[in-house]
Design brief:
Layout: E1 3-9, H1 13-23, E2 29-36, E3 53-56, H2 63-71, E4 78-82, E5 86-87, H3 92-103, E6 107-113, H4 130-138, H5 143-162, E7 167-168, E8 176-180, H6 181-192, H7 205-216, E9 218-222, E10 228-229, H8 243-250, H9 270-280, E11 286-295, H10 307-323, E12 341-342, H11 359-364, E13 370-375, E14 384-388, H12 401-406, E15 410-418, E16 422-431
Parallel strand pairs: 1-2, 1-4, 2-3, 6-11, 12-16
Antiparallel strand pairs: 3-9, 4-8, 5-11, 6-8, 7-11, 9-10, 13-14, 13-15, 15-16
Helix pairs in contact: 6-9
């Protein structure tokens, strides 16, 4: 059960030390590779003895291409793709690999919590497909369509958290994904290889960027003392010794990687695209519920453009690749989203309370679960979820301090919901 972890750094050095501490306790790990897309990674002290290998493409080549570059140095059967804002409890990787091998899977992922205390359950990966694109369009045009789509999403969310044995999931989150390296390389050749020239005879820029980055990439091994191990096997150096030693380091190059992700996806949807390949290959992705990890979510800085802009561009590429010119006619005009209570001065002490007129619902259905859910759209597809053990009028609902501190700035929505009677109240706020 050999595994190599690959991490892409983009101004995330402070986040990497804890993940290295976590990986130090993984008994089946062969190697850790850090792809330094921002060029500012510095060696960090961590509790493990394994010294990470650092690959420097000397420019930001994107997340998917960064992973491809890191995989060039991998010999293990399994590649564990890990975001810097992940935390991995002891035994989680071992259980993930064990579940994948028992199921005969080529692509596997864990379940995620949003916080260290494991109070907020993150949703399954949303993914993308033609019918889902249409459903998301329809939910903005019809209240019934919005409720209908939400009904199916809640079924999928509940299934995701209720299953106890490995189960098929159409999509997995790229925050932490276990990939059969040999299969992924072959699948990329079969389903996702990018042509060097497009239909109009223009050179595909992603191929040029990947090959140039590979040509110029330097590999070093960084240990907690700040040394760089010369890749040719010489003694450890600090980079300040002889010019010959420096020349040997600077001239080291790695071979062009066998891609596992389509390099056209600069960031986002590369994981969705790989999941499609697995399904087309007759071996769909699986989730291993015994493997639970923490994903702080959205902690990396934007590379010059907003997350929504990058997602929109990658989504357009995904649609073009998988369903070409298939289009949809919007059914009617855009309607107002579900009504929310606007919280003007949001802070960590704000109490989310059920309105007085809805409190009778809690009394009448006291055996029904009560959920506190947070989303980034008023339609709550997807949403993070906290199961409340007490009624909100007896146990006031607030956002935990540490969770609030890690919550990225942006616009959020919250709601209190029961499975039988639906939403009791919605809120909208911004974190500055």
């Amino acid at each position: 059960m050999s595994v190599t972890a690959v991490i892409v750094n983009y101004h995330t050095t402070p986040l990497i030390r804890p993940i290295l501490d976590d990986l130090a306790h993984v008994s089946i790990l062969d190697e850790i590779i850090i792809v330094d897309n921002s060029g500012d990674y510095t060696s960090v002290h961590h509790s493990g003895e394994m010294i990470p290998k650092v690959v420097s493409p000397e420019e930001n080549i994107g997340y998917g291409q960064g992973i491809n570059l890191g995989v060039a140095a991998v010999a293990s059967k399994w590649v564990l793709v890990v975001n810097p804002d992940m935390r991995i409890p002891s035994g989680a990787v071992e259980r993930l690999v064990e579940g994948a091998e028992i199921a005969g899977a080529v692509l596997a992922g864990p379940r995620f919590y949003w916080d260290d205390e494991k109070q907020f359950r993150l949703p399954p990966a949303l993914g993308a497909s033609a019918w889902m694109d249409y459903a998301q369009m329809c939910q903005t045009r019809s209240r019934f369509e919005a409720d209908h789509f939400a009904f199916y999403w809640q079924i999928r969310h509940d299934r995701f958290w209720n299953e106890t044995a490995p189960f098929v999931e159409p999509f997995l989150s790229g925050a932490c994904m276990l990939i059969d390296r040999k299969w992924a390389v072959e699948a990329h050749e079969k389903y996702g290889k990018t042509p060097a020239v497009d239909g109009k005879g223009r050179v595909n820029s992603s191929h040029v960027r990947l090959s140039e980055a590979t040509k110029n990439a330097r590999t070093r091994t960084a240990d907690p003392e700040g040394f760089h191990i010369n890749p040719h096997g010489s003694r450890p150096t600090t980079g300040n010794e002889s010019s010959d030693m420096s020349l040997a380091y600077n001239s080291f190059q790695i071979k062009a990687p066998d891609a596992i992700f389509d390099p056209r996806f600069f960031m986002y949807y590369e994981d969705t695209d790989l999941a499609v390949s697995a399904t087309l290959d007759g071996n769909p992705p699986i989730c291993v519920p015994s493997s639970e990890m923490i994903h702080y979510y959205n902690q990396s800085p934007d590379p010059g453009v907003t997350k929504s802009q990058m997602m929109e561009k990658s989504h357009a590429l995904f649609k073009k690749k998988h369903y070409g010119t298939l289009g949809f006619e919007a059914p009617g005009d855009v309607i107002h989203p579900p009504e929310c209570v606007l919280v003007e001065d949001m802070n960590r002490n704000f109490i989310f309370e059920v309105p007085d007129e809805k409190k009778k619902v809690l009394d009448d259905f006291h055996t029904s679960p009560l959920y506190f859910e947070i989303g980034v759209t008023p339609f709550f597809i997807p949403f993070g979820q906290r199961l409340l053990t007490g009624r909100s009028d007896e146990d006031p609902v607030t956002i935990p301090d540490l969770f609030w501190e890690r919550l990225s700035p942006g616009e959020y929505y919250a709601r209190l919901r029961t499975p039988l009677k639906g939403v009791l109240q919605r809120w909208k706020w911004k974190k500055q």
